[in-house]
């Protein structure tokens, strides 16, 4: 459904009349966040055919691209070369067989029966920083008060990339700066998952056949604890250095001295960091969060989605052929035209032989879709988030990933503290791709209530 046909009046979900029974899924122990065995001077360069960004983003804001290590170590995984070549990577039967083998490995890993060692390869995260010109310059000589300027950290869902947020972000920044009630947004970080976008290019040859979505949450914790600079002032080097260990420990215990950090996640959510380090995030915005109770697992197309993903085309003879393929696909038809332009520009690269391919092989998406346990663990952990941490839920009314409106309501109010929500009828799971304008309005309204501008706070 084209975004302009979707109603601009969302529904607010009321607390459920009854609580549906659920099976307790105790969260598994997670790996520590250890310093990786690399030096800042030895980070890999950005690929020549995807060199990164620098310069104006919108009036008043500048964009730049940065590299830093992902969480280390990682879950056990074996190196695996995905099928390559033009056309569909695999036939139907071969894809079903491969999905079965990968699922068996993943299920052993989830049960704690994986005999392989933890992953010791250093993987890389690529992030785009969008900073307000002059941010951090107010109050020179003193520590900036929390709340004077918000820092947003965005995580994308499976199959997309950091730039998928940019249409939403442009609207959000323009809306916040033009409204007397809007929040002052000093800095924004858009992060690629290690399997996606520019990070997938840097990590080619290092990624294996098993992925744990807990590692995606650990990547966010790793960034917030160890690589996010202390404040938003000034330019940054392409290679982000690790902050001092004393600062990391202080953030674990007390959060940031001069930042108000808000996490924004699509699909995979950001629940683990809020439970383990509640002081890091002032609030969370969960867009169609794939955080579900175990009792609806029968609704999930287990292995079917993975098999379809393994058969997706990922390389074409020309850019024109790739664009034509996307335009004919029913999967992309609901996407907003601006999102499709971003997708063509940032999800693909030109190859040495003049062809055109996705930066991330569909195999890497498929092994993420095999995840089961962590989404149930995350739902369980909602009840343990600090009640003082606001959670804002943004739901698609057509989406089945969250279990439909009854389960979406249960999920929204499982957190015992401050909750707010909007539910958009006519929108599916890929809400950031379908309605970036509505999403920007939702986020701006929530931030304006939680973190009003200096002007509003003085009224």
TrEMBL record:
The keyword Magnesium does not apply. Keywords: Hydrolase. Residues 152-441 form the AB hydrolase-1 domain. InterPro entries: AB_hydrolase_1, AB_hydrolase_fold. The keyword Transmembrane does not apply. One of its GO terms (molecular function) is hydrolase activity. This is Alpha/Beta hydrolase protein.
